[in-house]
Structures are given as C-alpha cells and as structure tokens.
From TrEMBL:
Chain ranges of the Ketoreductase domain: 4-209
Source organism of the structure: Streptosporangium carneum
Name of the protein: 3-oxoacyl-ACP reductase
Cross-referenced Pfam families: adh_short
GO molecular function: oxidoreductase activity
C-alpha cells in the first residue's frame, strides 16, 4: 500500500480505527474521519506513532453539508484517492432524523456512502469498500425505506434493513462505475466490542433477541474484544492483490467471496433505493 491514500469514515474508534491500523502497517497514507476533534487527534497520533502517514478530518457524515465539506477537504489534500472505506455505522434505539430530515440509519448506511462516493469519484482511482453488518439479507420493504412504517419488530430492525439496502445500492454503484477503474465491493466484518455495540441497549434490538442481550454484554468483551478480527475483511478488500479488478462482490468476515442476498440483487429494490438517494441529494451531488 506504499504510495496509496485511503479514506475511512468512522475511523477514530471501533472497527474503522483497526482497519486504519492494518492499512498503516501496510504502508498506506490514511485519512481518518470522526466527529470528535480530541478523539480524532489522539487516534491520528496513536496510529502515526510508528512513523506512518496518518491524518484526521473532523466531520459528522450523517449530515449532508458535512459530507460535502469532507469531500472538499479531501480534494484539497490529495490529487488522487486509492481507497474509500465507507465504514460509519449508526444504531439509535428508535427512529431518529438527521438535520436533513433523513432517518439516521438510512443516512449512515445508504445515503452517506452514496453521496461521499459520488463526490469523490473525480479523485477515486481504485477501490470502494462498503461495510454491511448485523443480520442483512431480509426483504427490502419499499414502503418502509426510512422506517416510516416500522423501526423494530420481532425479527425486523431498521439497522439490518438499511445494511441490506446498502448492499443493493453497492451493486448498482458497481454497475455505474464499471470500466472506469473504480471497483465497489461489500465487506461483512463480523462482531466487535466497539463503542457502537457498547452503547446499544436491549430496547434497540428486535424483540426476539432482547432476552439474550444481558448475556451478550457479559461475554462480548472476551469474545469480541480483539477488533483486528472484524477489520480483516475491510483490510483485505482495500489492499489485497487477490481482489484487484474485482467489483460488485460480497465478502464474508473470513474474506471469502459469498452470495448476495436475493433482496439486494432485486433490480426493483436497487432502483427504488438509488432513486430515493438521488432525490435526497439532488442539490448536493452533481450526477
Ligand atoms: N461492531 C460490530 O459488531 C459490527 C458488526 C457488524 C458490522 N458492523 C459495522 O461496522 C462498521 C463500524 O462499526 P463500529 O461498531 O466500529 O462503529 P462505532 O463503534 O460506531 O465506530 C466508532 C467510530 O465511528 C465514528 N463515528 C460514528 N458516527 C459517526 C458519524 N456520524 N460521522 C463520523 N464519524 C462517526 C466515531 O467517531 P467519534 O468517536 O468522534 O464519535 C468513532 O471513530 C459500521 O458500519 C457497523 O455497522 C459492526
């Protein structure tokens, strides 16, 4: 990765920071993104302590104007971007809107990767890696894309729903950029004991999982404390020669190519999500 520049959203903590650590170790210049200036500076200092090239930009990427600002600042610092990792996640316990009036998990998992990738296309020369999560693969509810009808159910969660939508959107994006040298793939990280998981209360889970949440709380630090494991699939997709030129593919936590869920492959779903993203960013993204 020497001579290559990587941008990772949500990378001043959690899985994103470990992904950054892995790519710095491979020699990449890494630009971190987080909301908190102190955590951002500390993360850049920590990851750059061994002589690596690490810098940080402060932005809340669930806000469209900050996504635009981030893209402008990246363009000021780099004449090319080799890898973009859309890593930011969100999981509020109930339906919440951003300042743009967009449902938060839809913003974090679908609209932000859509917008940031579009805005950075003029700089991008290589790979886009989008992170799915939870239990993706259920049906995409076209009348409930922003959880207008339901946010949580017996097995349903808007978190899983938006991660499945991200997969559908990624497939459509891979098609859009085919032949340009830019690739778009999706990584499944697996579980990590991260700030997001630590802050999730039982009330934020689908009803059937709530009884096991206290058990998870106790076991998670021991079972899922090593965040280098959930960072593996992103590091692989960002750096491995094995995936050079591969696009429109889905990789498991063991870095193996795996099948897409049927709902992500469904053209009608892809088009509905793409159209909604276009409508929500009409002012922001030149298409
Ligand atoms: N953890 C898991 O078990 C798990 C499992 C499957 C998939 N995933 C997915 O993996 C990705 C990373 O998960 P994680 O658990 O590491 O997340 P996390 O704990 O929320 O990550 C924390 C990092 O993200 C930054 N961040 C959060 N919201 C942001 C925003 N709106 N704008 C900019 N930065 C933001 C935080 O910055 P500040 O400190 O400044 O707030 C911090 O650097 C997510 O897409 C998640 O859905 C996670």
């Amino acid at each position: 990765m020497r001579g290559k520049t990587v941008l990772i959203t949500g990378s001043t903590g959690g899985i994103g920071k470990e992904t950054a650590r892995g790519l710095v170790a491979l020699g990449a210049r890494v630009i971190l993104v987080g909301r908190d200036p102190v955590r951002a500076r500390q993360a850049a200092d920590e990851l750059g302590a061994g002589g690596g090239q690490v810098e940080a930009i402060v932005a809340d990427v669930t806000r469209l104007r900050e996504v635009v600002g981030l893209a402008v600042r990246v363009a000021e610092r780099c004449d090319r971007l080799d890898v973009l990792v859309n890593n930011v996640g969100a999981s509020p316990p109930r339906r919440t809107l951003t300042e743009d009036g967009v449902e938060v998990t839809f913003a974090a998992h679908v609209l932000t990767p859509f917008t940031l990738t579009h805005l950075l296309l003029p700089l991008l020369r290589g790979r886009v890696v989008n992170l799915t999560g939870g239990i993706p693969g259920g049906p995409i509810e076209l009348d409930n894309l922003q959880a207008e009808r339901r946010y949580l159910g017996w097995t349903f969660s808007q978190y899983n729903h938006t991660k499945t939508m991200l997969m559908a959107m990624s497939l459509r994006f891979a098609e859009k950029v085919a032949g340009t040298g830019v690739t778009v793939n999706v990584a499944y990280p697996g579980h990590g004991h991260t700030p997001m998981n630590q802050s999730m209360r039982a009330a934020g889970f689908p009803y059937v999982y709530r009884p096991i949440v206290p058990l998870l709380r106790v076991a998670a630090p021991r079972l899922f404390g090593d965040l280098s494991k959930p960072a593996r699939s992103s590091v692989h997709l960002a750096s491995s020669a094995e995936v050079e030129g591969v696009s429109g593919a889905y990789f498991s936590m063991r870095c193996r190519r795996t099948d897409w869920p049927a709902s992500a492959l469904d053209r009608r779903n892809q088009e509905a999500i793409w159209t909604l993203c276009e409508n929500l960013t009409r002012e922001t993204v030149r298409k």
